[in-house]
Amino acid sequence: LTLLGIESSCDDTAAAIVTGVPGDAQVRASVVEGQNALHARFGGVVPEIAARAHAERLDSVVADAMRGAQVGWTDIDAIAVTAGPGLIGGVLSGVMCAKGIAAATGLPLIGVNHLAGHALTPRLTDGIAYPYLMLLVSGGHCQFLVVEGADTFRRLGGTIDDAPGEAFDKIARLLGLPQPGGPAVEQCAHAGDPKRFALPRPLLDRAGCDLSFSGLKTAVLRARDKLVAAQGGLYHADRADLCAGFQAAVTDVLAAKTRRALDHYLELAPEKPTLAVAGGVAANTALRTALEEVAADTGAVLVAPPLALCTDNAAMIAYAGLERMALGARDDLSLSARPRWPLDRQAAPLIGGGK
Ligand code: ATP
Ligand code: FE
After folding, report:
1. What is the end-to-end Cα distance of the chain in Å, rounded?
2. Where are the beta strands (DSSP E) in the chain?
3. What is the enclosing helix (H) or strand (E) of 56?
4. Which position among 6, 78, 96, 115 has the lowest Cβ density within 10 Å, counted as fewest Cβ atoms?
């Protein structure tokens, strides 16, 4: 099967061509056009600007992906598109583009959950078998999932407030670093002392796999304000130490909870477990190193996709569409865009369309 994938749920306009079968597929082209420059002066993604930029760029991004893969419409079996969750204007732009192509070419349309795209990425990059334990850590989400099939996810726990990615972004904003905050904070943390500030490890001792990041964020804010009050501003070393301390706290909490989730998972599937990680925050090197340690200690195999496939892209959407298509899933022009769409529950509020 060859699928065109389209992704526009946040601030990346993306299209990709993926060919293969479930568990054995190749990325033939993957084009991602970011919008950082458009949102930079607002200190965050502005939904209306994002939606407009997606609408303007989708056609050329799709054309670039098809040119890159050297395919025409007759080589393509279906169009997979992110149908949620995400910023609704952007999701609608992508769904409308996909519907237009489907109407013009007669190709089948397959709506994909953006989170399923992230969660199935290790099947695309490493061909790992079901079931596996997934730590999904992104800009808007943080959860432990048992992935049993392309449409079967069991949630073991997750954040009760902020997602780590949005926490990284907020810390960057607090410290005057550029967006997206994750890479900026990671970079700044290199030179820092993670022990200078005593930052909390929220929910570390609580049973279960739930996490919390908002208290940690507030603690960084307090530490910053104290420094600013005492010395009138921040020195570079202060920023580096705050970034390093914050990153260490996030990493400690995620590693400890991953250990817990693996214990739970081992009760369900006692064979040698596969631990996979995906989502934008999985690009963080300190986190990857900590998870490697957890995997080594517990006898699990860690699979972490290459960075370009951890952050938003359309290859993961094309691939998730391919898996759903192989299961017999088909959508039509009544496909709806969903602002919210939990992975483990199909029922979700709909916008537009019929179903
Ligand atoms: P979601 O997938 O939950 O809808 P999203 O699509 O916006 O959210 P992703 O593109 O998966 O999220 O990830 C983007 C997030 O990843 C941003 O918050 C960014 O700061 C974070 N991120 C990217 N690189 C790093 C890094 N090296 N360290 C930490 N965080 C990072
Ligand atoms: Fe994402």
Report:
1. 26
2. 2-7, 12-21, 24-34, 78-84, 109-113, 132-137, 142-149, 152-158, 274-278, 301-303
3. helix 47-69
4. 96
Query: Does the annotation flag 34 for ligand binding?
Result: no
Distance between Cα 130 and ligand 2 center (Å) = 22
Number of separate helices (H) and strands (E) present in the chain: 11, 10
Whether 184 contacts 173, CB under 8 Å: no
Indicate the helix (H) or strand (E) that contains 261: helix 236-268
Query: Do 150 and 324 meet the contact criterion of CB atoms below 8 Å apart?
Result: yes
Cα(227)–Cα(229) distance, rounded to whole angstroms? 5
ipTM of the complex: 0.98
Q: Tens of pLDDT along 30-72? A: 999 998 889 888 878 889 899 999 999 999 999 999 999 999 9
How many other C-beta atoms are found inside a 10 Å radius of the C-beta of residue 103?
Answer: 11
d(CA 316, CA 66): 16
Taking the C-alpha atoms of residue 150 and residue 152, their distance in angstroms, rounded to an integer, is: 6
Q: Has this prediction a pTM greater than 0.90? A: yes
Is 139 annotated to bind a ligand? Reply is yes
CB 309 within 8 A of CB 299: no
Q: Is the dihedral of CA 182, 183, 186, 188 positive or negative?
A: negative
* Segment 316-342, tens digit of pLDDT: 999 999 999 999 999 999 999 999 998
The angle subtended at Cα 148 by Cα 275 and Cα 210, nearest 5°, is 55
Contact 351, 92 (CB under 8 A): yes
- DSSP letter string over 101-169? HHHHH---EEEEEHHHHHHHHHHHHH-PPSPEEEEEE-SS-EEEEEEEETTEEEEEEEBSS--HHHHHH
Burial class from Cβ neighbours inside 10 Å (0-12, 13-18, 19+) for residue 231 reads exposed
Pocket of ligand 1 (CB under 6 A): 9-10, 86, 114, 118, 138-141, 165-166, 168-169, 180-183, 186, 279-281, 283-284, 311-312
